[in-house]
Recover the amino acids of this structure.
């Protein structure tokens, strides 16, 4: 059995995708990198709310980011993330 710290870390990763808003963000990013301003427009949510969800996904390792001037651009850290999510949800 894995150590408790490993299990808690795994639970944090699962919690990160256990939210419809965060799942939608992941699906948006499967098409490529987006600026926070573009994500806000599509999500129709305030910037602080979107940033909160992006930070959770980033901490869980799902996203990579780069800063360009005042804008932050996000992309998937691994393109297989969407395939894994789809497979998980199809087989439940």
């Amino acid at each position: 059995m894995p150590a408790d710290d490993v299990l808690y870390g795994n639970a944090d990763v699962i919690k990160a995708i256990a939210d419809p808003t965060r799942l939608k963000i992941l699906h948006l990013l499967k098409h490529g990198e987006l600026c926070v301003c573009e994500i806000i427009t599509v999500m129709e949510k305030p910037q602080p709310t979107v940033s909160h969800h992006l930070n959770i996904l980033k901490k869980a390792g799902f996203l990579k980011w780069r800063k360009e001037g005042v804008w932050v651009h996000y992309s998937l850290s691994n393109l297989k993330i969407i395939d894994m999510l789809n497979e998980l949800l199809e087989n439940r």
Notes: The first strand starts at residue 34 and ends at 35. The CA atoms of residues 60 and 78 lie 12 Å apart. Helices lie at 4-17, 20-29, 36-43, 47-59, 80-90.
